[in-house]
Amino acid sequence: SGINAEYGHDVCPRLVEPITSCLEPLVATCAMELSEMEAKQFESVVLFLKYVCSPSGKTHFQELQQSSCTHSETQITAMISSFELCMEEYNFFQQLAILEVLTEGRTNHRSPCPLLKELGKCAALQARLTCGRAYEKLFEKIWEITNEVIIDDLGCATTVLHTKRLAARALRSLKLWK
Predict the structure, then answer these.
(1) When comparing pLDDT for 25 and 85, which is higher?
(2) In b/e form, how buried is each residue of 93-118, taking b as 16+ CB within 10 angstroms?
(3) 55-89 burial: b if 16+ Cβ within 10 Å, else e
(4) Confidence class of residue 1 from pLDDT cuts 50, 70 and 90?
């Protein structure tokens, strides 16, 4: 198993580019039918697919081929499981902030933005510790796109679950592993 070696030569022109060119007008046409979050998620997917087939994206995915994780479902599972540590830390501090509001009556409670940024850093770090620098770069890119499209637009008041689902869906949809 592993990343498809013909990925850049075959997958982009035959699969990713047609999907991207189909999704872009669809999102614009169906914007009235989609919730704001759904539209933002589609926009994130389109941006990620464009990255995948860009020169830097193709280079990045060639780097991913060198990672032992790419060839080990066990390591990929371990990496994804390690993200739970990040989620636990995020949830703890989020609950702490809510508790401060409830017990101390603070109305100027902490912004969730720093917590979300730390969550992204934590996920990238866990990816590096488990699978190496190429996977860290992958999660940094996913986080950058998500941050640009969803989190920043919502003033950081979004749930992390959308980000986690987007990342998982992007990896599965690209069928990087044979």
Answers:
(1) 85
(2) bbeebeeeeeeeeeeeeeebeebbee
(3) eebbebbebbeebebbebeebbeebbebbeebeee
(4) very low
